[in-house]
Design goal:
Elements lengths: L17 H6 L5 H22 L3 H9 L5 H17 L3 H10 L11 H18 L18 H5 L4 H17 L6 H10 L3 H15 L3 H12 L4 H12 L11 H11 L2 H12 L5 H14 L2 H18 L7 H14 L5 H12 L1 H13 L5 H10 L5 H14 L7 H5 L1 H4 L5 H13 L7 H5 L12 H15 L8 H13 L4 H14 L6 H13 L2 H14 L6 H11 L6 H14 L8 H8 L4 H14 L6 H13 L3 H14 L4 H8 L8 H14 L6 H10 L5 H15 L9 H14 L5 H14 L1 H4 L1 E3 L2 E2 L2 E2 L1 H10 L16 E3 L1 E5 L9 E4 L12 H14 L5 H27 L9 H16 L48 E4 L2 E2 L8 E2 L6 E3 L6 E7 L34
Parallel strand pairs: 5-11
Antiparallel strand pairs: 1-4, 2-3, 5-8, 6-7, 6-9, 10-11
Amino acid sequence: MTTVVATNTRAGSISSAKGILALLRETDSAILRFALHRLHQVVDSFWFEISSDIALIEELHECSSLTEDLRQLAALIAAKVYFHLNEYSESVSFALAAGPLFDVNKRSLFTDTILSRCIDLYVAHRDGSNSLLPGGIEQTLAGGAAAVTAALDPRLDTLFSTLAEKWQAEDESQINVKELIGFSVRACRLDLLDVILRKHIAATNSAEMLTFTFHIANVLVTNYQFRREILQILSGMYTDGLQTVDYFSLAQCLVFLGDATRMAEVVHTLLHKKGERILAFQLALDLFDFSNQEFIGSVTKELQQLDQLYAPSSSTSQSEESAVAAVSSATGVVIDTEANAQLLSALRGEVTTSLYVKFLYARSLTDVHIVNNIKKGIDPRNSITHNATIIANAFMNCGTTIDGFLRDNMDWLARAQQWAKFTATATVGVLHKGHTSEAMNVLKTFLPDGSVGPLPFQEAGAMYGLGLIHGPVGAASSSTVIEYLRNALRQYSSSEQIVHGASLGIGLAAMGQHDEDIFDALFTCVSGCDAVAGEGAALGIGMVMLGSGNARVIESMKRHAMEFDQKEKTIRGLSMAMALVHLGREDDALPLADELLAHADPWVRLGGVFTIGMAFSGTANPRAIERLLAIAVRDVSDDVRRNAVMMIGFLTFKDPQLCIDMTKVLVDSYNAHIRYGVAMAVAIAASGTANATAVEMLWILKDDLVDFVRQGAFIGLSLVLVQASEKAQPKVKELRQILAKKIADRREDTCTKFGCILATGLLDAGGRNCTILLHKQRHRLAKSVVGMFVFSQYWYWFPYTLMVSLAIHPTCFIGLNDKFEMPKYSFVSDAAPSNFAIPKSVQQEKKEAKASAQQKKVILSTTKKEEENREKKKRGTLLGIAEDSKTSPTAAGAPDLDAAIAAAAGKDEAAEAPEATSETLENPARVTMAQFPVVKHGSDARYRPFFFKDEAAEAPEATSEILENPARVTMAQFPVVKHGSDARYRPLKPNAFGVCMLQDVSGGGSATTAEDLIKIDPNNKDDTAPVPEAFSYP
């Protein structure tokens, strides 16, 4: 076979390729060989002439009588001609047909372009499960949509494998390993990814690329099944060949996979391994922090089974004990009962919630004057604003257990009637969120006692409140309350109010438990009760079966929702429930969503919208976003369109900028419901981030002509700006002023005022120590998503507003030692404290405003004229004394003229004004030794003494501050927090957030317990009346 040298010879020796093209019509193979070789040399110069005979060259490529090398050479020429003609699809096809003559190692514009197109085409074929091509790939590249789903060309697969092997061989130093990982993930080549990662681990003993791949899988990979396959590969590498095992990354990987068995094995091994117990405690705390209830329950069961395996019971025979002892010695596991109890307590959330309650109580920074001003500014006869004020107080004190405002205003609170009383009573549950040990005692006076009392709304609200208290805790810690509420559901089934409240309470307390017995009890209420009770029971089902995807549950609810004469409230409750059952199930939920969206009833179609939003929440799936945008534009129901836009916020809460980009064009929509949906979508996606672009969009919508759009904009601004400081985001101060003004304005419409009152409460959520979180470390917080989702439906039912408390999380650092005690520990916040400071209190603002007004005091014209007359009179008196002194002779011993004037002046001044408290001295001046301590410099505008120190000048703000354990640390502050300054303790995990275990690197000493947090009574903070202004009695 003759080797072709692919060189581009200058065409200086010939002026046309027509002669060479004429040789292609010969039949002699030697002449054809010469002609093809010559054409290949001049194709880059005479491609325009060769293109006229491209059909002839294609015939030569397909001619079976020619040798393989000549046919491949003809294909290479055709590829270059099509390349110059910008026909890249044809060029790729003939380049692949050229076989080895297409040299991938020879760099040129032609080679690079074809390789790029080949890679993109290969990726498009491999990723054919996604209907949308990857970014930057034109559909014509693949020859149309049919080409994407067609069988993969084996030559393309061979080319990609060759390139991958070449890249790996060239990257011995592991410099370009990230690019290789990216190529393998885009091409869906798990075999190649496995090889690349194992090679990198063998060369470096580092988990850096595992972390990088983990990030890619969770951020960029939208296909649910493929993402799981990547994580499955990673989970097997975290403990294989690494110098140091990264247990935190392994735990995150296992949580995404839902592998409870292996997670339990890892935690159990660390718990009973010498020196690793504290690491097991930290993993347990993290699991409660960002995993779902089903996973926590499964891990708990697996741990209990492992304990039974390694710990012999009292009835175990001697031979069985010997066998267990052999297993324990072989695995290095020594059972510690006390450590097991501590681990389970951390895993169930008892440790975390108890610490958060105590922290929020002791460090509450709520300004009680804000809610008092709201109470004074609203019309007491308006039940909507009255109810909103009670809800706002609950948000301000969420989780703090501080109920002073309710206790101090019992008469005013008693004005709430019927369902407003239901909501008011349930707010007690928000105040005591997580305070499970005292839940029954706190609500004892409101709960029914044996029979339905005359206040069923209050009793039902108390049951709802019980659920809100137990919402943050696992179902294992709420078993007593769950049983109590189930009994109440059976005993008081005739009361629609109690059925509604108990159903919501059960759903919150047993969220994610997947108990089919509870489902049966609640579904009986859905089918046998009226609309209000049925809606609550349906929502309770959705929360209990959260994320299960249970086919029987879905089929039962779907059939009931599609009944011909079904009530609107019941359908809406069932629609929300079906969406919650499919939370996080992604593609598995699409058949149900398609069926619901095809229904004629708008409330059933609303369920399809909810299902897409919940199934793909946090994934930013482009197909789901495209589907929701299409519904928002095409559907005829305003409710469906509004919620379709709103669901985009749930899809993109891990990437707020994407939500902003997708919805900014809808801000100017003619439809007010779509504008409201945009406001809520942006707020949900950017909640707690203080995103400037999101604030800008919502700032425009707050001045909308439609009242409910303004309402949504104000609530959205509060969700985005919660815990933002005035220095970091100047709009915060202006927003507070606008909210206060609109609440006090009697002419403001009720709808907008309702939104302003809720916004005021959300801005100061949790005593100004909390923020809104829907994910942590890119782990979707299922309960937070549920809370925000149900809160977004307050449009139909005001009690749903309280559900947002599930998304309110403390932002703090609480360090614990291995005994779950809080030691003395300090760390540094490497930024100016004003960047994260709380806003000034109402009283402080008043004092500053008063001081400013006094400095700018206006002098009336009458007062000024009066002072001028007094001065003229004084000068006239002095002048008369001087004239008398000049005309009479001076007597012996009599005072001279100057003395007389001075005496008269002194007498006059003494009569009119008291002695001055200070005097101004001119340089040079007589200053006694006793006078020096009270001399003050700095009043001169030009000069200062050389060693002068201006005490009045404000000292420059510190660039950092030292924080003590436990400390308030905002989300914006965490990136600048630095640990390592403490001589004794170090945080166990790299990104210390929330409750963290501290490793004692020195040993010895005592620790401060959690009870020592409680040092002050929050009800007495700055709650005194201001000192009255000075006045004179007439």
